[in-house]
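Saturday, quiet lab. Running sequence design on the structure tokens for the scaffold JK sent over.
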């Protein structure tokens, strides 16, 4: 008596084939372990470890060493001359002989931050909004506004010093000088002051030079964000009777939250690390920033205390990292709460 063999259908063959394929795929791992082979694992570890080591070596190790050096007095030549002084450097820079320069520099960094937020940032957003309308000659306008971004702040400083702020033939002198000579960068008089500190007129002139470059940068960021917005959102707003301002405020701007985070962080960092443009202008009085005090204490004329320069650098680092961490943390916490 013979037994009939089971009939294998096409569906059974497909299931068997899928099972064999799954077995081959999962054959390279045991107990849920990684599918990486020995060579793949080595390459992956190298791709993660090498950049991390380089980043730690050139960023975080010097940062922590600078913080440690801020509690010492050292001429930077021989380690035998290094002397631990505690908070003496901070006492000198905040309460002692150098407090005037320190407070004016911090105030200038604050003026720069406010100006970048309410000047070039808003102007860059406006330009991006107008260029997003695909006006005639949009590509030409984009190129013109973006050109200063590819220039370093040092080059921007030279351009504005010789083209805009020349005391006799500069464009600003011809337009606003009333036919006479104007020392735009040498006028140390405060526009307004309090307690011996304030906003000097020559620093205002430098602010406009910085705005020339920063505006194009912000414009490009916002223009890229606006181009990625779904056109259906604008059409829906138009059908609901929203005007241009209502559409921007309630539809377009909320979708640009990721861009806003980037703009805020970049603007804060730009305001705190600014150095080049003022340095090439020979650091006119009352225009110093914390970055200049740091550099002058480390390598400037008569510099003999690496510890004091490290104290300035530590204050600059804390201002920068503190604000960035606070803003980013709060932003994403609010974003999680709204989900």
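Result came back. Writing it out in full:
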């Amino acid at each position: 008596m013979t037994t009939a063999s089971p009939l294998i259908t096409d569906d059974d063959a497909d299931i068997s084939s899928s099972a064999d394929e799954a077995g081959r795929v999962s054959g390279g791992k045991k107990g849920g372990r990684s599918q990486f082979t020995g060579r793949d694992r080595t390459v992956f570890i190298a791709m993660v470890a090498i950049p991390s080591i380089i980043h730690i070596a050139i960023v975080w190790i010097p940062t922590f060493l600078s913080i440690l050096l801020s509690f010492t007095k050292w001429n930077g030549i021989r380690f035998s001359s290094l002397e631990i002084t505690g908070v003496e450097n901070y006492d000198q820079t905040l309460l002692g002989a150098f407090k005037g320069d320190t407070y004016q520099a911090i105030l200038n960094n604050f003026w720069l931050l406010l100006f970048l937020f309410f000047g070039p940032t808003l102007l860059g957003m406006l330009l991006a909004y107008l260029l997003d309308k695909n006006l005639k000659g949009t590509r030409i306008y984009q190129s013109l506004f973006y050109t200063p971004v590819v220039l370093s702040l040092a080059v921007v400083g030279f351009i504005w010093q010789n083209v805009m702020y020349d005391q006799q033939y500069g464009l600003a002198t011809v337009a606003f000088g009333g036919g006479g000579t104007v020392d735009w960068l040498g006028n140390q008089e405060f526009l307004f002051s309090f307690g011996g500190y304030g906003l000097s007129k020559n620093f205002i002139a430098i602010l406009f030079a910085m705005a020339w470059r920063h505006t194009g940068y912000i414009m490009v960021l916002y223009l890229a964000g606006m181009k990625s917005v779904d056109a259906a959102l604008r059409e829906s707003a138009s059908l609901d009777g929203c005007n241009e301002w209502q559409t921007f405020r309630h539809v377009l701007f909320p979708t640009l939250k990721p861009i806003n985070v980037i703009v805020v962080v970049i603007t804060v960092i730009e305001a705190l690390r600014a150095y080049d443009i003022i340095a090439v202008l020979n650091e006119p009085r009352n225009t110093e920033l914390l970055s200049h005090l740091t550099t002058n204490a480390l390598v400037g004329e008569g510099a003999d205390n690496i510890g004091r320069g490290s104290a300035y650098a530590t204050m600059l680092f804390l201002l920068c990292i503190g604000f960035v961490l606070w803003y980013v943390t709060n932003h994403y916490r609010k974003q999680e709460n709204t989900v």
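Notes for JK: Residues 1-5, 25-32 have pLDDT under 50 and may be disordered. The domain at 98-337 is CATH 1.10.3720.10 (MetI-like fold). Ask whether to fix the surface positions before the next round.
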